[in-house]
Design a protein that fits this description.
Elements: H1 2-22, H2 29-51, E1 54-64, E2 70-80, H3 98-101, H4 103-107, E3 109-118, H5 123-126, E4 136-143, H6 149-164, E5 176-177, E6 197-202, H7 209-217, H8 233-237, E7 241-252, E8 266-278, E9 289-290, H9 291-295, E10 308-314, H10 318-322, E11 325-327, E12 332-338, E13 341-349, E14 362-364, E15 379-386, E16 392-401, E17 408-416, E18 420-431, E19 434-436, E20 442-445, E21 454-462, E22 466-476, E23 492-494, E24 498-502, E25 529-533, E26 537-539, H11 547-572, H12 585-592
Parallel strand pairs: 1-10
Antiparallel strand pairs: 1-2, 2-8, 3-4, 3-7, 4-6, 5-6, 7-8, 9-14, 10-13, 11-14, 12-13, 15-16, 16-22, 17-21, 17-24, 18-19, 18-22, 20-21, 23-26, 24-25
Helix pairs in contact: 1-2
Amino acid sequence: FPHIFISIFEKTLLLLFVQLVWRGSRCSTGTNMWLFATYLNLCLSLASFVSGREQFHEQLLLKPLPSGKLLAHFEFVVQSDLDFRNQDDFVHFKLFPRSLGQLVPLYGVQELHVSLTQGLWRTDSWGYPVRSAPPGAEAYAWFSNDEGLDKRWHGLTNGLSGLLCASLNSINSAATAQPRRTLEPEGMDQGNHSSRLRYAQLTRETVCTENLTPFKKLLPCSDKAGLAKLLHAKSVMDGAYRALGVHVRPVCNHPQGVGDTECSSVALELRLTLTVVMDKLSFDTSPNWSLQKLFRSKPTGACPLASDSVITVDTTDNVTRYHATLSPAPDAVENIDVYGHSRRLAVYDLRKVNASKPLNLIWRYPKTVLYASVPKPVFFVERLATGYGDQDGGMLVRLHNTDPQSCLSVLYMETVLWYFRILLHTMQASVNGKPVDLWANLTYQAAKDRQRPHVLEYALELPPSSVLEIRMEFDKAFQMWNEFPPDAHHGFYMSSGVACIQSFSTPNASALYPVQNGYLVYRGRESRVLTVHSPPLLIMLPTPDFSMPYNVICLSCTIVAIAFGSLHNLSIKRFTLKKLEAASVKDRMLKLLGMAPGKS
C-alpha cells in the first residue's frame, strides 16, 4: 500500500513542522530552519522511494531535408513505476502528468496512441518521418479486459478531448473500427488481443495553438525550462507540416533486450512527440538557419527534472551534398543504425548549457546551395478517387515496392465509413498489370448504417520493383439533413489507409539518438517495423441545396408580412368622414408658399 505510507509521511511532516514552530522560541532561527529542511528532505526522499522511481528524457532532432526545408522532431519521454494492472499505483504522481494518469486506471487502458496532425507528409520529398501520422486526428487503444469496451472507449475519447482540447468526443460507434491483423501493441508483450482494440480517425480535425497549450502542460517542466522553451506557438504553427502525439505503453523496467518478455517489474511510459517541417525561406531569404531564427528562442539549459536532454543534428548527407558548417562544435558525433542503414548524428548535451551562455546552433551553407531530390522511397502508397456523379464512386489504391531485389510483406488496412457502401464483388487486384487473387488474404468486416464502418485488412506480398493495384467501387448513401457538417459542399473525407511493413530497410528514414530507456529500447515486436499512412480522399456525396430553406423562409416571411400587415390595417382602422371647408385662393397660395393662413 504505497499510498498509505505516503499519507503517513505527509502527516508526519506536518506534525514536525507544527512542533518546530511551537518550539521556535527555544531554538535559534538557523537551527530551526536546518531541522525543518532535514526532516523535509528525509520525508520527501522516503515518499519518493515508496512511490517508485521515475525518469524523464527530452530530445530534439534537427534534420535538413533535400527539398530545402528542415525537420524538427521533439520527443519527451516519462517512464514511471506505474503498473496499469494495479489501480493503487495511480494515486501519487511526480513526473507523470496526473490528468492523463487518472484516465489509465479509470478506463482500464493498457496502451494508448493519439495523434493530431495538420498537413500531409511528403514522403517523396522528405523521406520517412520518425513516426507516421495521418492528417487529422487518430486515436487507438488496447484495454486490459473485455468488460464494457464500447462504453470505456467512449469515456476515454471524451476525456482525451478535454485533455487535448480536440474534437475527439465526436468519435462514435459509426467511426470506430476493430482491426484484427494490422495493428499490434508496441509495449510489453501482453498478447495481441485484437478484440480489446478500438481505432478511429477524424480527418477533418485541425491543429492549432489551442492544442499546443495543453500539450505543453503535460510536460514535467511545462514550457519554463529545457527543450519545451523552444515550443513557440507561431514558429510551430507556421510549419508546412505539424503533428502532436501522445503515446502511452507498458514497458519492462529492466529489459534484457528487444525480445525480452520475462519482466518482474512493469513500468508505464509516456511519449510526447511534436514533429514540425519548417520552411526556412518563409521567414528569411538566407538558407542558413539557427535555433534563434527557427524558434525565436535559445535553450538555456536542460529541464532540471530530466535525466537526459540532448539536441541532435542529422549530418549524414552533409559531407556528400550540403558541405555546410555547424557551430558550435558538437559534444559528440555518433553513428546509429536506422532501418538497416547508418545515420550520422551530431549530439549536443543541454546539461552542459547554462543561462549565462545559451546554446544557439548555427548551420551555414556555402555560397552555392544545391538542393537535390530525395532517393525514391522503397515503399509508398497512392490513393485516387474514381467514378463520377453523386451516386456511383470508387477508389484506386497503389502500393509501390521500388526495391529491385527484395520482396516486402505488407499488412494494409482501410477503414471506410458507412456512407461509402463498398461493393465487394467489384474488387480487382493486379501486380504490374497482371491480375492476382487477394480474396484468400483479405479480412473484411462489413459496415452497418450509422453503427460501424467497413474494415478491410490485406496481407500482401510485393515482389521486387512492383506496383500492386486494388480497385473497388462503392455507392454513395443519402444522409439525413442533420448529419451534414456545416460546410456540406466541401465534401466528405475517406480516412487514410494504414500500411505496416516488417523487417524494413531504407536509407532515407529519420530516427532519434538512442538514450537510455529511450526510443525503441523495448517493443513487443521487431524494431524494424515501418508504418506508412496513405493520403485521405475527398469525395462528394449527394448533398441537398441548403440555401433553399433560407430562400423559402425569406419569401414566406415576406408574403406573410405583407398579407398580415394589410389585413391588420383593414381590421383595426376606422374610416370616418371629414367635412372639408372651401378655402380661398389667397389661403391656398399662402399654404403653398409655406406660410400660415391669416398672417401677413
